[in-house]
Amino acid sequence: MLPYKELARLDKLIHEPARLSILTALSACTLAEFLFLQELTGLTKGNLSCHLTKLEKGGLIAIDKHFVRKKIPQTTIRITSEGKAAVENHWNRLEAIHEAIRKQGANSDRRNASGE
């Protein structure tokens, strides 16, 4: 299969840029607070909340909402083991596709240089 076609077969739940950013950030830590993720990703509260809901429904993250000192709401997010495996697999697939495309281009360059 052509590597370009593989790009269309990537998991869209993970591949969407904001969700890929969220999952990649979460894969580097144990858990993160909502406001930290918002700052890190540059998403609005509503946008981040929407993406987190989709990721939670997909079983890729777990969200915990609680109150600190009975008054201050705090939302923490952690990546699940399924989510960690999924985002790692996604990055590996992207790298493999990229490498296949680079090799295809290198082979094309050699054919063109030899006058084929």
TrEMBL record:
Origin organism is: Paludifilum halophilum
**Protein name per UniProt:** ArsR family transcriptional regulator
For this protein, the record's SUPFAM superfamilies field holds: Winged helix' DNA-binding domain
**Residue limits of the Winged helix DNA-binding domain?**
19-97
One matching Pfam family is HTH_34
